[in-house]
Structures are given as structure tokens and as C-alpha cells.
Design a protein that fits this description.
The complex is a heterodimer of chains A (198) and B (275).
Chain A: H1 4-14, E1 19-26, E2 32-39, H2 44-58, E3 63-68, E4 83-91, E5 96-103, E6 106-112, H3 115-130, E7 137-144, E8 153-159, E9 165-170, H4 175-186, H5 188-192
Parallel strand pairs in A: 2-3
Antiparallel strand pairs in A: 1-2, 4-5, 5-6, 7-8, 8-9
Chain B: H1 3-8, H2 24-35, H3 40-54, E1 58-65, E2 69-74, H4 82-88, E3 93-97, H5 103-127, H6 137-154, E4 158-165, H7 168-175, H8 177-194, E5 200-203, E6 208-214, H9 220-234, E7 241-248, H10 255-274
Antiparallel strand pairs in B: 1-2, 1-3, 4-6, 4-7, 5-6
Classes of the chains: A alpha+beta (198), B alpha+beta (275).
């Protein structure tokens, strides 16, 4: 029988974006020896950072393993666009940011003036549209999460057809780059279903 | 093990049909619902019961929750492999080895597990502060009441610590609420790292935090404060804080009076700092 502490521990781990499954290995005396998280649709490295934070609060000696399901091949039916973040600038004076994305030699530029965190996500969506993609999602939330090693950013996008939220997570130097990468992470599966633009 | 192998095993209980099914498991689950605080542990208990009843070697329940998305639970707290997770997909259901459990029973298990996960999430949310994930005022008040009753009855000592962030309003106003929220999260996390097992740390107001240090007669609060400052320094936080303490039974065994004393000492110190 699980203690309420262990139940809450597992619930907190399951509340992390992208966590599909939590496996817990116990020692003979009942202590938690190790935790395995199965992660889908998120950067497993970033999820591991946050998971280690939670594990350190409950069972500091327990090992954390992240199994990545992102590698499972998806049927894309054609050329998959490779979109990369080229640069991201933030103007301290007016709070505006500019994100440059590249796809197959083409560059899309997006701008927003809502600070480095929310603006980073908005500018990334604008840059994708500038590249010619129809992105049927809108921004719901951009948050920092406190971890022992920094502040990863989690971006939540909601589809216009209301068929569920997409979460992205990224940790990088500065809020702007992290927010831009987290936005691309949230759209990872959606973008992989699109054909590359001519 | 893959989903194919989960479902391809030869049934060993072919005599069990939906017609002969008796809702023993559902009754057992209802009993459990009445007895325990529901949590994810209930899901593992049900999988254990299912495995014992049908001599299963493996079982997985897949749930879809509006806040958690797809969640899989495997017998014995085992993790699922990548290939198994991919094959299970996003459809809720119960998958057993061997595949002998009547559908009506799988439905009952899935429904009860879904209910359990939802209730656990609701219970956790009701007792925790969503910003910092530490206990909220409701949980704190209840823990303080319990500690005070024990202290009055058995003489067990505990120390109530109230923490207030210094100049938080000014930081919030100048740097924005998003930055203020970051500071609160950072402080909440440092607080969680600083308390011992069995202590309670809670966010009880905007930038006010409360801690109940069990089996502590006052001196232990210095150790707690040192740990808190150390964790804040390690996380690079610039925020400072002031504390006020009251110890039971020395100061009082009444929770309201203890709170008043700790609050008074906190503001006494704040006055010194502000001068």
C-alpha cells in the first residue's frame, strides 16, 4: 500500500508535461530506489531536470531515469520541415522582441512586444506564419519553472479546434530563447505532420 | 513486452463470461472508496486485486485525464517500455496478460481508476498552493490545529515559524508580477528543501509563508533559517525574508494565540529592519 507521501510524489511527477508513465523501484525496506519516467512530445532532458527537482524533495537518494518515446517513428507522409531558430533579440527599451526562424534556406521573422517571455512565444508563432505555415494554435500560457539548475520555460498552446493543449519545454540562456525553443517544442508533432514548403 | 504480447496470450479463464460475472471487484473498489483517501495508490491496489483474481502476470491501465493527458499505470509500479507506450497509445483501457478479464470488469476497473486519479488531483489541488506547490492556508491551519492539540494533550513541543519576504511589494511593482511570481516559486522551493520530513511548509498569504517544525522547542528554528538562507543563496535568489516564531507549549498551546505571538515577533523584527 502506498503512503500518501508517495502518492503525492507520483502525482507531482505525472503532472509534468509529456509524462505518460511513472515506474517506481523500491528497496527491500520500502524506500524508493529509482524512478523511471516515460516521456512523449517533450524534451526529455528538460523534463529530467524538473523531475530531479521533485525527486530531491521527496527521496534525495533516488535515481531518475527518463525513457524517451519521441523516437518512435511517426508517419509523416513526405518531407518534414526542418525549422531552426536562427536568432532572437530583445530590446530592453521598448520590451519588443524579434525572432528569426529558418526553413530550408528561407527565413521568417516574427515580432512581439510583450516582454521576453510571452513575447518570445508570440514572436515565434509570428515567424512561423511569416514562413508560410498555417498554425492553428493560440498561446495560452508561458511560465518559468523553478529548478535547482535554472528556469526552464513551459509554453502551452491551444488549438482553434479545441482538441487539446500542446506543451513545450525548453531551458536555454535567457527567457527569450527558452520561450522560442519551448514554442517550437510544443509544435514539434504538429510540424512533423506538415510537408515542407516549396 | 509489447501490447501485442499483452493481448495475444491464450486465455486461461475461458469459462468466465460476462453472464457469469459477479461484481466482486466493483464491490471491493466501493469498499476501498469508503475507507481510504483516494490516490494513485488505489490504482495499483486495483491492479493487484485484478492480478490475484485472474492470475495475471501483467496488467496496464491507460487513463486520459483532462489535466494530466494520457497516463499509464502498470502492475507493480513497473514502467512501460517505449514500444509498449507507443502501442498502448491514447485510448483509455485495461490490458491484461493473459487476456482473460471480462470486458465489463475492465470497464469497471477503468472507471474506478479514472475516478481515483481525478479525486487525487482534486484533493492535491485543494490542499496545495498552485504557484509554489507547497501546502496552502487550508492545509496549514489544519496542521497547526493538529499540532496544537497534540502539544496540549501530550506536551509535545513544536515551533510555528512565520516568514515574510522583505520588500516584496516594491519588487513586484517595479519588476512586474511575472518576476514576483518567480521569486515566490523560488522561495517556495527553497522552503520545501529546508524543512524536515514531517514538518509543514505552506504559503499562507501573498508573500507570507508558514512553517510548523514538529518536535522543535525554538532553537531548531535557527537551523531551519540557516538551511533556508543557504538554499536561497544556492538558487541565486536575491530575496531576503524576516521570521517570527512561537513555540508550543512554552508560549501557548492555543493555535490562534501562537499565530498572534509569532506574527507580533515578525513585525517587531520588520520594524527594526525598516528603520
Amino acid at each position: 500500500m502506498m503512503s500518501s507521501t508517495e502518492e503525492d510524489f507520483e502525482l507531482e511527477l505525472r503532472s509534468l508535461p509529456g509524462v505518460l508513465n511513472v515506474g517506481i523501484k523500491h528497496r527491500d525496506n520500502g524506500d524508493v530506489e529509482g524512478v523511471t519516467l516515460v516521456v512523449f512530445g517533450q524534451d526529455p532532458g528538460a523534463v529530467r531536470v524538473i523531475a530531479m527537482q521533485i525527486v530531491s524533495l521527496y527521496y534525495p537518494d533516488a535515481a531518475v531515469l527518463v525513457e524517451n518515446v519521441n523516437n518512435v517513428p511517426l508517419s509523416t507522409g513526405g518531407d518534414v520541415p526542418r525549422i531552426t531558430l536562427v536568432r532572437a533579440d530583445f530590446n530592453q527599451d521598448d520590451g519588443a522582441c524579434e525572432v528569426h526562424l529558418s526553413n530550408n534556406g528561407r527565413v521568417g521573422v516574427g515580432r512581439a512586444s510583450s516582454g521576453s517571455l510571452i513575447g518570445g512565444a508570440e514572436a515565434t508563432l509570428a515567424a512561423l506564419r511569416d514562413l508560410g505555415y498555417d498554425i492553428p494554435f493560440y498561446l495560452v500560457e508561458v511560465v518559468n519553472v523553478a529548478t535547482v539548475r535554472g528556469w526552464p520555460v513551459i509554453v502551452t498552446l491551444r488549438s482553434h479546434s479545441n482538441d487539446g493543449d500542446r506543451f513545450g519545454i525548453a531551458q536555454s540562456e535567457g527567457d527569450l530563447v527558452a520561450a522560442a525553443k519551448a514554442t517550437l517544442d510544443a509544435l514539434n508533432r504538429f510540424l512533423s505532420t506538415l510537408k515542407g514548403l516549396e | 513486452m509489447t501490447l501485442s504480447s499483452l493481448n495475444s496470450s491464450k486465455p486461461a479463464h475461458e469459462e468466465i463470461s460476462e453472464q457469469s460475472y459477479e461484481p466482486w471487484l466493483f464491490q471491493k473498489m466501493l469498499d476501498e472508496l469508503g475507507r481510504s483517501e483516494l490516490g494513485v495508490g488505489f490504482i495499483y491496489s486495483v491492479l493487484d486485486l485484478l492480478a490475484a483474481r485472474y492470475e495475471l502476470t501483467d496488467a496496464v491501465v491507460v487513463l486520459v485525464h483532462e489535466s494530466f493527458g494520457t497516463q499509464t499505470f502498470r502492475l507493480g509500479h513497473q514502467s512501460v517500455s517505449s514500444s509498449m507506450a507507443a502501442e498502448l497509445g491514447n485510448s483509455p483501457g485495461v490490458f491484461c496478460v493473459p487476456d482473460v478479464v471480462p470486458e465489463v470488469e475492465c470497464d469497471a476497473v477503468r472507471t474506478a481508476c479514472q475516478l481515483s486519479l481525478s479525486l487525487h488531483f482534486a484533493r492535491f489541488s485543494a490542499g496545495h498552493d498552485p504557484l509554489t506547490n507547497i501546502a496552502n492556508r487550508r492545509t496549514f491551519d489544519s496542521a497547526l490545529q493538529t499540532a496544537a492539540v497534540r502539544s496540549a494533550r501530550y506536551g509535545w513541543a513544536f515551533t510555528l515559524v512565520l516568514c515574510d519576504l522583505n520588500n516584496f511589494k516594491a519588487v513586484n511593482d517595479s519588476a512586474g508580477h511575472a518576476f514576483g511570481d518567480q521569486l515566490l516559486r523560488q522561495f517556495g522551493f527553497a522552503l520545501r528543501l529546508s524543512v524536515r520530513n514531517g514538518d509543514t511548509a505552506a504559503r499562507i498569504g501573498g508573500d507570507e509563508f508558514g512553517v510548523i517544525l514538529n518536535n522543535a522547542e525554538g532553537n531548531e528554528s535557527a537551523g531551519f533559517t540557516d538551511r533556508l538562507r543557504s538554499h536561497l543563496a544556492l538558487s541565486g535568489s536575491l530575496i531576503d525574508f524576516t521570521i517570527g516564531t512561537a513555540t508550543s507549549p512554552r508560549d501557548s498551546t492555543d493555535p490562534v494565540e501562537l499565530y498572534r505571538i509569532a506574527d507580533g515577533r515578525l513585525y517587531e523584527k520588520k520594524g527594526v529592519i525598516l528603520r
